[in-house]
Specification:
Blueprint: H1 22-26, H2 35-39, H3 51-54, H4 58-74
């Protein structure tokens, strides 16, 4: 007679993360001059966080990417973490 093991119920891994858009909450738009705000949305390596982790709306995620690239081009932000200080 085969006995069934008592299995723990699995947690659903696909539970959506309920984050709200930072720019919608504050009523602002991404701007290349606000470097401290833009730094919230890049990781320690200098990469732009995906929408899944940033919690931004699709429109604001696209605007954010453009503004981060502008700030990098203007020299306000680093492209990578490998810059010598």
């Amino acid at each position: 007679m085969a006995y069934k093991k008592n299995k723990k119920p699995r947690k659903d891994r696909r539970t959506p993360v309920s984050k709200t858009c930072y720019f919608t909450e504050t009523g602002t738009k991404p701007d290349y001059k606000e470097v401290l705000v833009l730094r919230r949305f890049i990781n320690e390596r200098g990469k732009i966080l995906p929408q899944k982790y940033s919690g931004l709306s699709a429109k604001n995620q696209r605007l954010l990417a453009v503004e981060i690239k502008k700030a990098r081009y203007m020299g306000l932000m680093h492209y990578t973490d490998r810059h010598a200080l």
